[in-house]
Amino acid sequence: MSIAIESLQLIKRYPGQKKEDRPAIDTIDLTVESGQLYGLVGPDGAGKTTLLRILSTVMEPTSGSARLAGFDVMKQSEDVRALLGYMPQAFSLYPDLTVMENLKFFADINGVSAQKQKTRIDELLEFARLTEFTMRRSENLSGGMRKKLALACALIHDPKILLLDEPTTGVDPVSRRELWRLLSKVIQQGVTVLVSTPYMDEAERCNTVSIINRGRVLISGAPAELEAQLPFRIVEVKAKPRRALRAVADRTEGVIRWRAVGDRLRLSVSDPAKVMPRIEAELKKDGAEISILREASLLMEDVFIHLVEKQEAQS
Asked: Among 33, 104, 298, 314, which is disulfide-ready with 1 (CB 3.0 to 4.6 Å)?
């Protein structure tokens, strides 16, 4: 498969940062194959936006190199922009323009011919389910509709590569699902998509992910592969009173760590077959009422927490 996006030893220091300060992004190597849905996963401040700005030619790196479809992002920026769609995290549209006016504006600045514009705009309006709202100003759209319009504007010139910076942040769960439905259609059309997200459930949707924290890529791979590499398993427990449950989790042999998720605990354990009977016995001894005690599936959130804790321990 051909390589759509590649970075090598990419470093970015902002003005005023000293050499001993941690860079915004620190020696990042990234390889995204053509046609992939690739997730860049990490918390706020991890370096995701900085990396996407460099790849989109908006910002220059301090050192290192990056190429999109073989074009150098610094030396061949015009070639990169011609094949690239970029949707920044902040609302990038013109609030006083209507849906139709925004689409026409982005079509013009991306060199879409007048002959092609009508067909392409009609396609994208239907694609984003905005056909009924062409005369509405973008400032009067809901959060989810704004994101869909921004995505349509990023796709107006048929880009081969799409960079999306946290496209679902700040929208409701229904709009999140709708945006991911649209992204699946984009992938089916052969577009390579690199999407950043702080949401671990969205990472599960990607073909490949890179987990980034403190400016560094901690690991890359398919979600299922990364989950399979974890040195522990997960046991899920729900019991009352919660105070007793937490106390048992703290003292039971074989429990590596635990975290609360809603009304239950997810325990990282060495061997579920050995730990679960111990948990049950300890809870019964304390008079707790057990409603759930089972082995649960590993998640990308478990991968992320494990790697971040490991990084912090090493630093």
From this structure: 33
